[in-house]
Specification:
The protein is of the alpha/beta class. It has two domains: 3-143 and 266-295, Rossmann fold (3-Layer(aba) Sandwich); 144-264 and 296-323, Response regulator (Rossmann fold, 3-Layer(aba) Sandwich). Helix content is 38%, strand content 22%. It is built from twelve helices and 14 strands. Helix 1 crosses helix 2 (58-71), helix 2 (58-71) crosses helix 10 (267-284) and helix 7 (198-211) runs parallel beside helix 8 (230-243). It is elongated. It starts with a strand and ends with a strand. The relative contact order is 0.13.
Length: 326
């Protein structure tokens, strides 16, 4: 299996990171540079990276892999691609290799190693994760930190002060706690609504539309909840639109379905954050989970106008993307 150190290497397009992506990591190294008080990992390590490749998500994967390399130029990355027909014995053999730690990118990578004894620290990324996950020693979740979201909501909807947060009990508790703390600093009232099924999620959402106040209430559907899918999400978002309720979601795709505001990670920065997190875990031996640290917002302009947002040029300039901008 191919190996890469830092941002060097002669790669081929076999589903691994390409040479162009690796060299691009050098150009983007500044974007992945550590925050004040942080430093890039300096120890030379060999790190295994397990991932699944698909053409649809190739740009996301390449950006994440280049971020891993840019943040840890002294590390050698041993890339392990999950492919159709791979055997359990082959996967088991990966974990006998001389590596210092593992990075599991994507849900498929995390799921396929369940039941496999991982002898070295492992972290996850490119997925919605939680401290209740037992498969890894830590990870960077695609969940957003409420402290990054609330300032934007306050700027766009200054009269709204109640947040109905739809989430999965247990799995999303750590995000709800962050939301409570961040909201207390901004005088928001948080009304968590735990759900364990599509029917419960639909009931909670419909209850807000029936008994809530669109002049003060925001509905926040946590992106990792997995409770709303396909036509159900579109139907509920249309009802929210009819009732003038703003809906925030982590998932960009749901903004296309009719949510007011969403976001997406900077995947290069996401990869860099994963490398730095693994370095911390290797140094301390302590489990650690983080939300993705750099996001851009996506607004549905048609819905924004419906809920009373003045979509000025200044607002447009703050957005990473706009949809339904008729």
């Amino acid at each position: 299996m191919a190996k890469r150190r830092g941002i060097e290497g002669k790669g081929t397009r076999s589903g691994l990171i390409s040479r162009r992506s690796l060299l691009g990591a050098a150009a983007m190294a500044f974007a992945a540079s550590p925050a004040p008080g942080q430093s890039a990992p300096s120890a030379r390590r060999r790190i295994g990276v397990i991932y699944a490749h698909s053409d649809r998500f190739a740009p996301i994967l390449d950006a994440t892999l280049s971020g891993l390399a840019a943040a840890a130029p002294s590390w050698e990355f041993d890339l392990k691609r999950l492919r159709p027909g791979i055997t359990a014995a082959e996967i088991e053999g990966w974990f006998d290799g001389p590596v210092s730690g593992w990075i599991l990118l994507g849900t498929e990578a995390k799921d396929i190693v369940k039941g496999v004894r991982i002898r070295k620290p492992a972290v996850t990324g490119l997925q919605y994760i939680s401290p209740v996950d037992e498969i890894a020693d830590g990870g960077v979740s695609l969940d957003f930190d409420p402290e990054d979201v609330l300032p934007e909501l306050a700027a766009l909807l200054p009269r709204h002060n109640r947040i109905h947060a739809l989430y999965v009990d247990g799995r999303d508790d750590w995000i709800i706690e962050r939301l409570r703390r961040a909201s207390a600093m901004r005088a928001y009232s948080v009304l968590p609504a735990a759900a364990g099924s599509l029917s419960e999620a639909t009931d909670h959402f419909s209850g807000v539309l029936r008994y809530g106040n669109p002049a003060t209430d925001i509905i926040w559907v946590l992106g990792g909840s997995g409770l709303l899918t396909g036509d159900t999400a579109g139907h509920l978002f249309q009802q929210a639109y009819n009732g003038r309720f703003p809906v925030f979601t982590n998932r960009r795709a749901w903004v296309n379905e009719g949510a007011f505001l969403g976001g997406e990670p900077d995947f290069h920065a996401h990869g860099a954050q994963i490398s730095r997190l693994l370095d911390k875990i290797l140094a301390t031996g302590k489990r650690r989970f983080e939300t993705t640290s750099r996001i851009s917002f996506v607004m549905n302009v048609r819905v924004a106008r419906r809920v009373g947002v003045d979509v000025s040029q200044a607002v447009r300039d703050r957005m990473g993307a706009l949809v339904a901008d008729d």
